[in-house]
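Query form — protein VOC domain-containing protein

QUESTION: What is the three-dimensional structure of this chain?
INPUT:
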Amino acid sequence: MLFHYHFWTPHVEETERFYVDHGFQVFQRIGKYQGDFQNFNPPLVWDDFREKNILFRIIEARKGTINITFGYGKKIIFDHIGFLISEKEQDLICENAAEMNWSVDRGERRTFINTPYSFRIELQTNKDIVDSMTDNIKIEELRIETKKKGLEDDLSALFGKTVNTIKSVTGDKVTIREAVITDFSSKQVVDPNGVRFVN
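ANSWER: The structure tokens for VOC domain-containing protein are given below.
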């Protein structure tokens, strides 16, 4: 199940505000302050720390089966998408990735696959990463702009089945163009990183 994406962005506070305004709850904020990584989690709000020079490594916002993360970057960079899967599925996907010569970085909490499309794929087996597995609020589809063709076919080979939640268009950058999310908004809106939402 597609559940996640991550951006690096200079618009950290604005990105958080956008998602909170659309019903997401901030789960955690981790940032570097005075040389150390520290938590600035809720119930803290931006007025509590805005004046401090914090470099946010990760801010995590959740809604239903969706988990969106972002951290500070000098420019907007789309980093990865994430799939929530079983451990058995993970083993098969990692084997397929090796056959495709895509490098795999297996970690204790999550696994990353490096794609030739200039973004990574996270494989997550821990269901505690989302608020609800039964909630109907989910990412129906992401439309990803890539610089080369073939993403859908490669994802089918990687997962061993058709991945209907990812559609691609070829362009001059790598980013998420559109996100189709259930029960998101009655009108089209665009987040601070250029992701357009359609209901």
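ADDITIONAL NOTE: The chain has four helices and 14 strands.
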